[in-house]
Amino acid sequence: MGRDLNSFCYWCVCKGPKRVFFKVRDGPVDWYFCNTEHAEKWLNYRQQPKTRELCRMLPLERNAYLGNFTMEEEISRLTQNAE
Predict the structure, then answer these.
(1) Cα–Cα distance, 67 to 35 (Å, whole number)
(2) Domain spans of the chain?
(3) 51-67 pLDDT per residue, tens
């Protein structure tokens, strides 16, 4: 079984080789991000009830869900509806 040398940013779903991403280790799981800003946003919003499911979607599923919207736009919409 070979190692997977590619990954994606869990915030913006940008794809590329793992070596160019910022890695966050959470227990036995490694999460990859373009930069620290994306990591901080994802770590914050993945714990909130209204945005948790969006942050945990895989790239194809998230792209289908978002359509032409960005993560920031969708999170803004979800958090405004929560108030």
Answers:
(1) 23
(2) 6-82
(3) 999 999 998 999 999 99
Residue 18, amino acid? K
Q: Which of 24, 49, 27 is nearest to 38 (CA)?
A: 24
- Residue among 72, 78, 32 at smallest CA distance from 51: 78
Phi, psi of 32 (to 5 degrees): -115, 140
Within 10 angstroms of residue 76's Cβ, the number of other Cβ atoms is: 12
Three-class SS of residue 53? helix
Among 53, 21, 19, 54, CA closest to 38: 21
Q: What is the pTM of this model?
A: 0.82
* Joined tokens for residue 6: 């590619």
